[in-house]
Amino acid sequence: MFCPGFKDVDAFVKRGLGGVVAATKASGLLPQAGDEFDFYRSFPGFQDFCAVQGERLLHCMSQLMQHHGCRSFMKDRSKLTGLEERFDLVIESNDVILEKVGIMLDEASGVTRSQPVMPAGYQPPRIVVSSWNRKGNDHSGETFHLLHAKNIQRPQLKFKEKVDNSNTPFVAKIFVKPNAIKPLPSCELTKLQKERPEDLDVPPALADFIHQLRTQEHMDDMFSHPYQYELEHLVMPEILRSRPDPQLYKPLAETSCTFIETLEDLVALNEKLAKTTEFAVDLEHHSYRSFLGITCLMQISTREEDFIIDTLELRSEMYILNESFTDPTIVKVFHGADSDIEWLQKDFGVYVVNMFDTHHAARSLNLGRNSLDHLLKLYCSVDSNKRYQLADWRIRPLPEEMLKYAQADTHYLLYVYDRVRADLFDAANGQSNLIQVVWSKSKDLCLKKYVKPIFTEESYMELHRKQKKSFNSQQLVAFRLLFSWRDKLAREEDESTGYVLPNHMMMKIAEELPKEPQGIIACCNPTPPLVRQQINELHQLIKQAREIPLLKVSEIYVLHNVTLLTLLQSESTLFGPHDTSHVSESDLMELSLQGRVILLFLLKEDEGVGNSGHLTVAQQKACSILESFENPFRMYLPSKDIHISKNAKYDPSTKIYEISNRWKLQSIEKQQKEAQAKQEAKKQAKKAKGIYRLEVCTPAGPVGPIKVSCVVGLIFSVACGSWKPAHCRQEWDEARLKRINLRIKE
Ligand code: AMP
Ligand code: MN
Ligand code: ZN
Predict the structure, then answer these.
(1) Ligand nearest the Cα atom of residue 294
(2) pLDDT band for position 99 (cuts 50, 70, 90)
(3) Which residues have C-beta within 8 Å of that of residue 78, sequence separation ≥ 6?
(4) Per-residue confidence (pLDDT) for residue 41, from 0 to 100
(5) Which of 261, 296, 262, 260 is nearest to 154 (CA)?
(6) Three-state secondary structure string covering 225-289
(7) Helix, strand, coil tally for the chain in percent (to 5)
(8) Is the peptide bond before 197 cis (omega within 30 degrees of 0)?
(9) Ligand 1 center from residue 658 Cα (angstroms)
(10) Quick one: how far is CA 52 from the chain centroid?
């Protein structure tokens, strides 16, 4: 069914069109302004009817506009007076909607806008020759071809399993484990999850702790590398133990190259590979029009044949190759496998056991340059050219030239593997110590786990720091809002963040804070399609940023290790940006716009944690509790490299001092008193053997007291306006939050 009540698109369109025609007819029958209208208006019944129906229509239109992310009557009601303005809004929304329709129709019909929209009248060249990553003068003849094809359908549309762009950790896509010594973790977890200790006479938050500890082991298994055990117990294969006699490659022109795009052929290939002792592998990947990237091609070469697998077509079937890829008796030769290992896991759930990376071999041999081109030149006298490295590998059917290029990437690799091994033995005077290093480095690569990009409230700071620009408070807020807008949209639309809004454009918008939508467009040349589409949304974000107080700040202010007692004592004055004694809703809002994350940690001992060598069982348990606190709140944690020295807070020459002073955060005396209080609390805590009782009072009644031993991290985040104990199943809204009391009893 296309959508509820309609069996297909045609049925939907027919009904929709009927509705539009009927509405148009009916509106034509309404009394015209000027003549009958004034007469009708003299009847109160008519007036009421018009008012009610008018409201209904406006509401309906507003909802439509909001659904499309446009400015609507609702949002701007207070400012809207005239009919004219409303009319403009309707036109604006129509444009946005039609633009969206256009883009979708294009995509559905296979025409992509993989290139940024160009100014009218300008036709982009089909091949963009660029030299951005040319290194040194010896490469002067080399060019990189960014081959774009006009007719690329989004491969994602055909994927059997939809891409998971959600902001959650990656879960391994492996359900069958060939060559296993240790079996896959069982799926008992779901059963365990149901067995929460509800029956225990403990508060819900604590019940969740206990449950978490019980399931932790299983979770560890779930998120560990499926072949970790096998890799750790792998011994160097016989073939690597002695100096080989290099076996020359077959001439490229005489080697059969099979393009594999059916399951049948893939199975046959797998059988063939299972009989070999080594084969070479390479992948081609596309990352511009997808959030996580897509592996488009896999090249495999045996001593006899070359194969190119269409991994867009066989994406869901690729896992069968695990049989040969994880077979410890078969060497898989890669060149520079860092990304390949991740892509195999991400897209196919394929793992590699027993790999040899010729890139690491080149490094161990001190060849100076370790690229594949260099090795091919050195050992095979082949002048390869990596000019299609950045081509759009989603193109189908693949042009002959690109197929040849892909084939050449693995064709010579087994011979290179022989040659570097021979050289590694020679360089080590016939010993195997050098080859062992390469072997071990390659194994480490295989142990790498794919990690999905996770958005946190701090992610924007990482990028901001890299850009090395000093922003004022408004610019920083704009940057933060743009960053999260971009991340959200990229995940939703399955596009790269670079496609949605390239970094340099995002910086420019944040820097200039354009007053008008047109100004935002002007910051982006050429304007990315999604920026054009969501220009009103972006305009609102910038407006929001412009409304906050202008401060010359470039750091986020983070308070470390402030005890909860401190929070209680100065509850009302701690965060007030103005000199008021109460924190009002708007103050909180303003703070949240500042992106201020205030972390409150209650620690028994600063030292004890992290030094796992000296931890008692209780401390280790405490650490795991602490971790259980940290994970769900990762987004609120400060990134590790922000460090604010304690003294900076008291030193009038520092920025921190300036900020805390300006925001009347705390007086120096108060801070000193609190430092003392903190020391006291620490001492007392030590005396009390680290048992705290924490009472959390919510409007629904007290939760707790919760007994917490040793170490507890509590996180109070102003930025999101909510405080929640980890795993608290109750959702608290902002209003409730403000009525929450925290009390500590020793
Ligand atoms: P290769 O192993 O050289 O065949 O490269 C495999 C894939 O890595 C290519 O299909 C590209 O997606 C990506 N890639 C390689 N080199 C670069 C580069 N310099 N910049 C961005 N992506 C690259
Ligand atoms: Mn590669
Ligand atoms: Zn390649």
Answers:
(1) 1
(2) confident
(3) none
(4) 83
(5) 296
(6) CCCHHHHHCCCCCHHHCCCCCCCCCCCHHHCCEEEECCHHHHHHHHHHHHCCCEEEEEEEEECCC
(7) 50, 10, 40
(8) no
(9) 47
(10) 46
Ordered alpha helix ranges (H), 391-472: 400-411, 413-427, 433-446, 459-467
Q: What angle do CA 626, 627, 632 make, to 5 degrees?
A: 110
For ligand 1, atom 21, name the residue with the nearest CA. Answer: 390
Locate the DSSP E strands across 271-426. Answer: 278-286, 294-301, 306-310, 331-334, 355-357
503 lines ligand 1 (CB under 6 A): no
Nearest CA to ligand 1 atom 3: 389
Amino acid at 699: P
Out of 115-129, 447-461, 698-712, which region has the weakest mean confidence (pLDDT)?
Answer: 115-129
What is the distance in A from the centroid of ligand 2 to the CA of 359?
Answer: 10
**Sole residue written with tokens 């003849």:** 141
Among 470, 530, 520, 526, smallest CA distance to 497 is for 530
Give the closest residue to 114 by CA, choosing from 144, 161, 155: 155
pLDDT tens, residue by residue, 136-184: 334 434 344 444 555 578 999 999 999 999 999 998 999 999 999 999 8
What radius of gyration do the chain's Cα atoms show? Answer: 32
* Whether 657 contacts 648, CB under 8 Å: yes
CB 490 within 8 A of CB 528: no
Structure tokens of 303?
A: 């001593």
CA of 499 relative to ligand 3 center, distance in Å: 23
Confidence at residue 585, expressed as pLDDT on a 0 to 100 scale: 36
Query: What atom of ligand 1 comes closest to residue 409's alpha carbon?
Result: 4
| DSSP 3-state of 223 | helix
Ligand 1 close to Cβ of residue 276 (< 6 A): no
Per-residue pLDDT tens over the stretch 4-40: 888 888 888 888 888 888 888 888 888 877 777 888 8
What confidence category does residue 658 fall into, taking pLDDT thresholds of 50, 70 and 90?
Answer: low
Q: Tens digit of pLDDT for each residue in 499-543?
A: 999 999 999 999 999 999 999 999 998 999 999 999 999 999 999
Question: What separation in Å is there between the alpha carbon of 252 and the centre of ligand 3?
Answer: 16
- Contact at 8 Å (CB) between 528 and 506? no
Question: Token digits for 535?
Answer: 């220009």
How many Å lie between the centroid of ligand 1 and the Cα of residue 336? 10
Of residues 707 and 306, which shows the higher confidence score? 306
Residue 250 buriedness (CB in 10 A; 0-12 / 13-18 / 19+)? middle
| Pair 178, 322: CB distance under 8 Å | yes
List the one residue out of 695, 557, 717 whose CA is nearest residue 634. 717
Dihedral sign computed on CA atoms, order 252, 256, 262, 265: negative
Write out pLDDT tens, residues 697-708: 444 445 444 444
Cβ of 284 less than 6 Å from ligand 1: yes
Proportion of the chain above pLDDT 70, given as a percent = 64
Which residue from 268, 283, 277, 327 is spatially nearest to 302, judged by alpha carbons? 277
How distant, in Å, are the alpha carbons of 47, 344, 523 from that of 70? 30, 40, 20
